[in-house]
């Protein structure tokens, strides 16, 4: 059986949430999507996520929410990380941190799908090694399913590519998030793992990474502290559709997805 999985790039603020409300379920129906993963770490005003916003995103058809370095920005998420297994924080945070870095959840027709959330170390705050962390997680998750998706939330393209090759043949897909710009390097690696360096951004694209252009330019030109407000125009959904063989866990195809407000 072929499993169709959609993975959505970083959701930025209210504009990102609104376009998902309007466009996601029709796309899921049209493309026969069986399972949907989204990175939600920027969903609350551009930095962090709350329990209420997570519930909102789940109501739009998202099955699992991944995060990244902004996971702790809103204290309201702490309770949800303790109680809702479908909201992940990166699995290479300290084992003493609240929440979990992976989950196995059943898709539309009952197939178990594993989702792993990792955080890169290059140009990021200190954190445990994502490569060693994913080895430990796979010892557990691979007992439950061979369909496994990895969100590698990282700044450096090289680190995301390295994770793709490291996990080739061991997981169904490795997708990069964090940099908010969709890359054109989607491929199936030699041993059957789908890969893309960055899914892009679900939010306003007439912006600088989702923030108002004038705010960011003021900050970089004057070097003065500036509040980065979420932009509003040219809102799009960025992501990929991955088709996986349920028997082998290998990816058959990966295709970039872009949905605009007028589509």
Describe the structure.
The protein has 6 helices and 13 strands. The chain is an alpha/beta fold and 263 residues long. The strands form 2 sheets. Strands 1, 2, 3, 4, 11, 12 and 13 form a 7-stranded mixed β-sheet that branches. Strands 5-6-7-8-10-9 form a 6-stranded mixed β-sheet, covered by helices on one side. The longest helix is centred in the N-terminal third of the chain and has 19 residues, at 13-31. The protein is globular, with a radius of gyration of 17 Å. The mean pLDDT is 97.
Keywords:
Purple Acid Phosphatase, chain A, domain 2, six-stranded mixed sheet, 26% helix
Task: Write the SSE topology.
Blueprint: E1 2-8, E2 10-11, H1 13-31, E3 35-39, H2 51-59, E4 64-66, H3 77-83, E5 102-106, E6 112-119, H4 130-141, E7 148-153, H5 157-167, E8 173-177, E9 187-188, E10 194-196, E11 201-204, H6 213-222, E12 235-245, E13 251-260
Parallel strand pairs: 1-3, 2-11, 3-4, 6-7, 7-8, 8-10
Antiparallel strand pairs: 1-12, 5-6, 9-10, 11-12, 12-13
Oligomer: single chain
Indicate how many domains the architecture comprises. Answer: 1
Mean pLDDT: 97
**What is the 3D shape?**
globular
CATH fold-level topology:
Purple Acid Phosphatase, chain A, domain 2
Compact summary:
The chain has 263 residues and is of the alpha/beta class. The protein has helices spanning 13-31, 51-59, 77-83, 130-141, 157-167, 213-222; strands at residues 2-8, 10-11, 35-39, 64-66, 102-106, 112-119, 148-153, 173-177, 187-188, 194-196, 201-204, 235-245, 251-260.
């Amino acid at each position: 059986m072929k499993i169709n999985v959609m993975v959505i790039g970083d959701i930025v603020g209210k504009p990102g949430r609104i376009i998902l409300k309007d466009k996601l379920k029709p796309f899921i129906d049209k493309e026969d999507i069986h399972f949907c993963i989204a990175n939600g770490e920027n969903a609350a005003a551009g930095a962090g996520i709350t329990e209420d916003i997570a519930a909102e995103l789940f109501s739009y058809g998202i099955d699992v929410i991944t995060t990244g370095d902004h996971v702790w920005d809103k204290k309201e998420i702490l309770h949800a990380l303790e109680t809702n297994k479908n909201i992940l924080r990166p699995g290479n945070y300290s084992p003493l941190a609240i929440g979990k870095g992976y989950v196995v959840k059943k898709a539309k027709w009952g197939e178990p799908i594993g989702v792993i959330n990792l955080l890169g170390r290059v140009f990021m705050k200190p954190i445990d090694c994502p490569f060693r962390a994913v080895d430990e997680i796979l010892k557990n998750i691979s007992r439950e399913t061979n369909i496994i998706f990895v969100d590698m939330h990282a700044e450096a393209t090289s680190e995301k590519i390295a994770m793709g090759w490291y996990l080739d043949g061991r997981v169904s897909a490795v997708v990069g998030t964090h940099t908010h710009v969709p890359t054109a390097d989607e491929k199936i690696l030699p041993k059957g793992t789908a890969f893309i360096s960055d899914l892009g951004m679900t939010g306003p694209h007439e912006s600088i990474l989702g923030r108002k252009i004038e705010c960011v330019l003021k900050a970089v030109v004057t070097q003065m502290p500036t509040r980065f407000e979420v932009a509003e125009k040219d809102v799009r959904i960025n992501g990929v559709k991955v088709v996986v063989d349920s028997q082998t866990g290998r990816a058959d195809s990966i295709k970039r997805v872009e949905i605009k407000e007028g589509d």
